[in-house]
Amino acid sequence: MQRCKVYLQDLNGNTFSKEGKLIGYDPSYDLAILKVDVEGDKLRPALIGTSHDLRVGQSCFAIGNPYGYEHTLTTGVVSGLGREIPSPNGRPIRGAIQTDAAINSGNSGGPLIDSHGHVIGINTATFTKKGTGISSGVNFAIPIDVVLRTVPNLIVYGTSVSNRF
């Protein structure tokens, strides 16, 4: 089982690290599930929204650690819905949310939230200008409704149902 260091922040603003264990991965959606034991630590779970009623033009925000800069928030709008982008295993990710909120190295895996603070997607990719590695400003997130359908199988089986056969 793969392990990693996970950084967390409690309700008092204290940052600490714990060991995380990879318990599930779906390369078709570029999603991973980490288990972190945090007994006794005061943490607040993210507010989960829905992606089924998103509208092009609505505000959204990407949270992450781009290039190691902690607690970074970028702002943008939902630029498109139902996009198809390549996944790490070469299969297309269908239904992706397109946004102009900056998603750089370190933002992938972080939340895309709406103006009410609800998670509407998981940041996953940015298109880069060919041969330069420079972001084109066209960024993508996995819709939270897809994430919520995928996560239970990742927890139980370590992979999505479609990857088990």
From TrEMBL:
Which key words tag this protein in UniProt?
Answer: Hydrolase, Protease
The answer to whether keyword Protease applies is: yes
Q: Among the record's GO biological process terms, what is one?
A: proteolysis
Could you list the residue ranges forming a coiled coil in this record? none
Is this entry keyworded Zinc-finger?
no
Q: Which InterPro entries match?
A: Chloro_Bact_Ser_Proteases, Peptidase_S1_PA, Peptidase_S1_PA_chymotrypsin, Peptidase_S1C
Recorded GO molecular functions are: serine-type endopeptidase activity
Family named by the database record: Belongs to the peptidase S1C family.
Q: Which PANTHER family match?
A: PEPTIDASE S12, PROTEASE DO-LIKE 5, CHLOROPLASTIC ISOFORM X1
Protein name per its UniProtKB record: Protease Do-like 5, chloroplastic isoform X1
Give the originating organism.
Answer: Iris pallida (Sweet iris)
